[in-house]
Amino acid sequence: MSLYGSYIFLNIVASFSLSNYMREHSISHLPAMSSGFEIPVSIIVPAYNEEATIVSSVHALLQLNYPQLEIIVINDGSTDSTLQTLIDEFAMVPFAEAYRIRIQTKPIRGVYLSSRHSNLRVIDKHNGGKADALNAGINTARYPLFCGVDADSVLQTDSIEHVVQPFLLDHNVVAAGGTVRIANGCEFNNGFLQKAGLPKNPLALIQVTEYLRAFLFGRLGWSPMNAVLIISGAFGIFRKETVVDMGGYRTDTIGEDMELVVRIHKTLRKNKKKYRIVFVPDPVCWTEAPEDFTTLKNQRVRWQQGLSESLMMNRELLFSRNGGAPGWIAFPYMLIFEWLGPLIEVLGFCFIFIGLYFGFVDNTMAVAFFLIAVGFGVLTSVIALLLEELSFHVYPKFTSILKLFFAAIIENFGYRQISAVWRVIGFTKWVFGKKHHWGEMKRSGKWQN
Amino acid sequence: MESILAYVTNIEPILITTYSIAALMATAAFLLLIQVMILRTRLNAKNRHRKRFVEKWRPIIAETLYQVPVLPLKLKANERCFFVEEWNHFHEILEGNCKRNLIRLATKLNIDRFALRMLHSKHFRERLTAVITLGHLREFAAWDELKEISLQENSLISLAAIQALMQIDAKNCVTIAIQLISKRGDWPTARVARILESAGANIISEPLIWNIDHNQTEETLRLLPYLYLVHSQRSSPTIDKLLNQTVDDRVIAACLQAINDPIELPTVRKFLDHSRWHIRVHAVTALGRLGEKEDIARLTKLLSDPQWWVRYRTAQALAKLPFVDVNSLEEIQENLTDRYAIDILAQVIEEKRMKWTSN
Fold first, then answer.
1. Stretch B329-343: mean pLDDT, rounded?
2. Chain B residues within 8 A of A372 when measuring between CB atoms
3. Rounded Cα gap, residues B37 and A386, in angstroms
4. Residue in A320, A153, A354 with CA at minimum distance from that of residue A234
5. How much is the average pLDDT of A19-42?
6. In whole angstroms, how far apart are CA A374 and each of A128, A320, A379, B16, B27?
7. Percent of chain A having pLDDT more than 70?
8. Contact status, residue A92 vs residue A63, Cβ threshold 8 Å
9. Fewest C-beta in 10 Å: which of A154, B22, B109, B183?
């Protein structure tokens, strides 16, 4: 109940935040209001065995609408022909780059520069994992802002422009995240979204409502309080100097994206530095959602492990002296509702089932409480739908709303419960120190064609 | 213990409350869904309306780019907002004479009066659109109101008002604008630069220099980033004075960025050995713009600077000098002994070569 109460609170904050954003956004995209003095951005694309999709991803990145942009693909010791594919497609030639090693990484074998696109480079390095690849990208990035992008994500053409805006408006902004949406069911052409749509696969459809909730109020709600603790690894822009000062991404966690953001909060608050970490509600990045239980399970287990590591590695932030909203509100919220929440939920289910079996829990009472949980669950999803309708109307069809509403109802009958179980598995794996590695997600990559 | 058991067993009121909450949630969710549907219906209707409007009006606006249509034109009341949006969009993307025709078309359709009324709308977006429209219309009747709006706390509308005032009468607005810029830390530098740039160096030079000369340090600092927009012969004495008087890094950096007159070369050279590396970066960059043959030796020395950025910008500065080509860079490289200097120059040589190849 308290979880849903907190959701309602975040919803209220998000509604105000979104209405303010839309008010300014609607006009700031008139040509005269865009500055023409945007901060240059380095896009870092870690790639591990991405030979099938990397070329179309890079082609799409090269078409992004932004005045000053460099693209750095990090070939993280791929065992397939990722590097050769890039060399052949973009006429890459060895380049004598005098980069600085400001963050220690696995050795770099070579740097290549495209002779067709002067803003495209490939860094070939020994395998060290996604975080290590990102760190190598930071070392070689030349611009003050960098954007970490998953090799299999699809960006909106104006995505960088949107997410850089907070940096232009406030020099204290050190990081900004954008909304990630589900790509399944959408139509893509040449690596760009052509038409938004909903997936036919019920598992992916439920994840669409999940993402709407997570991004439209889960993160937007925290943004006005400067308490955003997660910026998705699929798309986020950071001030390079801040990340270098932090020592870069940690390579001993699978939740390197969240860990970095929590660490930035912890360190800058401890040092009493003025900073802001913001969230931009525009849908800027599209990513494929798992359509089968095994892949979804792996993803959720990994997320929970990442969450556990991020929180525990930065536990000093919790109720710290200068912790502010991140330390006193967001961190405890994450700890109670996102970290321990699934465990409590699963224990609650077990208690109810055992109680029903042994007769110390009343049938009607169990049904009534379940109905409340469903009611709150549907309500929060519908509020997310309303926020979506008030802002971006990504899904154009009338029937899409009904489908999403239907998904918001059915997810309460099995999906939420199994999802909680997977998260408990992730939690347990973290307790026993089992490690996950990157590149395990099974993707169809249909839109890449 | 007994009392707890008694409470737990007496579940009737709890059950009623629980079911009531569940029903309440379900009703609220259902009502919100209806609201979403209504919003979508309205949006679809609005989109259809807009489509019809665009089909009818876009050819007329496009024709206006060449000549104002002589046909009797009339806008329906519910078309005005669409028209203003479309008209503003055309205004933003076009240059030159076409704009005059667009203004004539808007005046013919009484958009000026409509925008003046919209200035008092209770909706922020409409007020902001009105400010932008009145600016594009060069509507002098809105001068006083726009001046008031430029003092508002909201940075978006206040800056839009300054932009509008600048479009209406740049000469009279520039003093107001520069005074406000020196006081407002919330206005994004990039947007302010664009507004000042549109007014032109002839108009902004005098008041900007005067304010830099006569303001306090903090206010001066807010104005310095725009110094590069001023005619170099006008900014040189001020830059010279500031660089010789101040020890504030921010002032020095801004001045070095603005320097564009070879007369300032001796001053720039003084900062090549500055203790702060970011000042050295700005100094070598300035030398890259203005340097002479004798500066090659100075720059070559800085290729061994302990800071990577100084080395990189120095190598770039050398490559930018008009009398230095790839062969000269290679000659310099051959005479270097420091590994860092050799590496950084190798990179810039490669960059320069690539640029040539791609060109």
1. 92
2. 18, 21-22, 25
3. 9
4. A153
5. 64
6. 43, 36, 8, 17, 12
7. 92
8. no
9. B183
What spatial distance separates the first Cα and last Cα of chain B, rounded to whole Å? Answer: 87
| Structure tokens that stand for B287 in this block | 């030398």
Q: Is there a contact between B15 and A364 if contact means CB atoms under 8 Å apart?
A: yes
Going through A8-86 in order, the beta strands assigned E by DSSP cover 41-47, 69-76
Minimal Cβ distance to A35: which of B26, B37, B191? B191
- Return the residue matching tokens 């598992």: A203
CA distance B13 to chain A (A): 11
pLDDT of residue B2: 59
Record the tokens describing residue A167, joined without a space.
């940096």
Shortest Cα distance, chain A CAs vs residue B114, angstroms: 18
Q: Residue B351: its chain A contacts at CB < 8 A?
A: 118
- Mapped to the 3 state alphabet, what secondary structure does A325-365 carry? HHHHHHHHHHHHHHHCHHHHHHHHHHHHHHHHHHCCCCHHH
Q: What is the C-alpha to C-alpha distance for residues B343 and A99, in angstroms, rounded to an integer?
A: 9
Closest approach of B187 to chain A, Cα-based (Å): 7
Helices within A220-255 (DSSP H only): 240-245
Distance CA A444, CA A78 (A): 19
Question: In this structure, what DSSP letter does residue B289 have?
Answer: H
Q: Count interface pairs A-B at CB distance under 8 A.
A: 132
- Per-residue model confidence as pLDDT tens digits over A121-166: 999 999 999 999 999 999 999 899 999 998 778 888 888 988 888 8
Shortest distance between the Cα of B357 and any Cα of chain A, in A, equals 8
Q: Is B331 on the interface with A (CB under 8 A)?
A: no
Reduce the DSSP state of residue A279 to 3 states and report it: strand
Residue whose token pair is 């933003």: B92
Q: Which amino acid is at A49?
A: N
Structure tokens at A172: 């204290």
Binary contact (A32, B25; C-beta < 8 A): no
Single-letter amino acid, residue A52: A
- The reply to whether residue B44 touches residue A98, judged by beta carbons under 8 angstroms, is no
- Which of A38, A170, A382, A410 is the best residue to mutate to test the B interface, defined by the most B CB atoms within 10 Å of its own CB? A382
**Segment B125-145, tens digit of pLDDT:** 889 899 999 999 999 999 999
* b (16+ CB within 10 A) / e for A35-70: bebbbbbbbbbbbbbbbebbbbbbbbbbebebeebb
Partner A contacted by B121 (CB < 8 A): no
Is A382 within 8 Å of B29 when comparing Cβ atoms? yes
CA distance B212 to chain A (A): 22
Q: How far apart are CA B192 and CA B180, in angstroms?
A: 11
DSSP symbols for A117-180: -TTEEEEEE----HHHHHHHHHHH--SSEEEEE-TT-EE-TTHHHHHHHHHHH-TTEEEEEEEE
Token digits for A319? Answer: 């109720």
